[in-house]
Amino acid sequence: MSWAQSVFSAGGADAIELNRLFAVMLVGAVILWISLNGLFFHGTRRRTGHMSRKLAEAVIIGGGILPMERAALVSWIANAGAIKPEAQMPAFAHLSKTELDRLAGWLEALE
């Protein structure tokens, strides 16, 4: 008695092992694809956020527009968008001159 093997229902121990290996390889390929895409998109995403982490080492403000001086920092804090239109930092023009100066001093003191 001979059994015809169907394409849709593989039979035998070898076929079962092949199906298992295929499933393991498929899962591995999907995990690798997701990981690589995550690394690519993480590496290319636009980084925005506050500047305090690297402000202590900075010698320029606004990507080279202003020198790292107290008056320039106060101007940048007050209204970064007026200096660099594509800046995403909100304006703090509502603060008094004293408050802006204190905030600039605090940022300069960060390490």
Computed structural class: mainly alpha
Mean model confidence by pLDDT: 75
How much strand content do the residues show? under 5%
Helix content: 55-70%
Helix tally equals 5
Order of helices and strands: HHEEHHH
Question: What characteristic shape results from the CA principal axes?
Answer: rod-shaped
Sequence stretches where pLDDT stays below 50 over 5 or more residues: none
- What is the count of β-strands? 2
Biggest β-sheet description = 2 strands, antiparallel
Distance between the termini: 83 Å
Strand order of the largest sheet: 1-2
Cα radius of gyration in angstroms: 30 Å
Structural topology:
Layout: H1 13-44, H2 52-55, E1 60-61, E2 66-67, H3 70-78, H4 80-83, H5 97-109
Antiparallel strand pairs: 1-2
Helix pairs in contact: 3-5
Task: Walk me through the structure.
The protein is mainly alpha-helical and 111 residues long. Strand 1 and strand 2 form a beta hairpin. It is rod-shaped and about 85 Å long. The protein starts with 12 loop residues before the first helix and ends with a helix. The mean pLDDT is 75.
Quick tags:
single chain; 111 residues; mainly alpha; two-stranded antiparallel ribbon; 5 helices; 2 strands; 4% strand
Brief account:
The chain is mainly α and 111 residues long. The longest helix has 32 residues, at 13-44. It has a two-stranded antiparallel ribbon with strand order 1-2.
